[in-house]
Amino acid sequence: MANKLEDKQYKMETIKLALFLGELLIKNGAETYRVEDSVLRICKSRGYNHINCFTTPTVIIISDDKFDGLCFMKTINTRGMNLNKISMLNSFSREFVNKIDPDISEEIQELHKIDNMKTYPSWFYLLGTGLGSASFAAMLGGNQLNTYVLTVLTSIIATYVYDKTIKYSSIVMFSTLLSSVIITALGVLLHNIGLIPQPSALIVGSIMPLLPGVSFIKSMRDLISGNLVAGTSRIFEVFIIITAIASGVALVLGIGGL
């Protein structure tokens, strides 16, 4: 272990491993405290006790306050939510700590495998979103068969448009605004042609998947745990998304005169 501590190349590889782990945790929706705890656990397990980690939803910085001054930074442009990958990454960090002399290159390959794991098929994801939205609509009074089926279809269309838009633009507010406009426009149109008795249940139910509930909870946890920068950033993102949803709905209802 003493030789490893003095090996600068090994130290750099270890920090790069920790940086990659932190990046994957952020990309898959992990809380700030979980990211920093995992990164520091990786470094301390190899005897590097002078490592500092600074994390926000868009960047992670790892530095060493000793004389060599090593510092690594990675910006994160896209973020999502995958609890399965978060669980696997958390297990990876705990298993790494218990290894005596791990091969860093092999461990990085293991992280690449987790990163490249396929998620649920698109049709399954869209169908689940549609059924969930229709169930919300039913609880709000849209329990007629026509309303339920059309809410499923509306939510699937809006989710598909959101995913495609965010893939090419990476602008959350624009994607949310566009999806909200589509949902509200379809709700008003279906109501005007007499297919549903009222558009409110369909609109509210279809908008539910767009609401940033998880981001709001994570922002509160970050603020409570003392991560003020990350917490403030997340809560600001929540307000932006809510504003985009409200603007999209208001735009269509204003034009439609409802």
From TrEMBL:
Transmembrane segments: 122-139, 145-162, 171-193, 199-217, 238-257
Domain Threonine/serine exporter-like N-terminal residue range list: 17-255
Keywords from the UniProt entry: Cell membrane, Membrane, Transmembrane, Transmembrane helix
Subcellular location, record wording: Cell membrane
The family this protein is said to belong to: Belongs to the ThrE exporter (TC 2.A.79) family.
Stored InterPro entries: ThrE-like_N, ThrE_Dicarb/AminoAcid_Exp
Domain of life of the native organism: Bacteria
Protein name: Threonine/serine exporter family protein
Organism: Peptostreptococcus canis
Keyword Transmembrane helix: yes
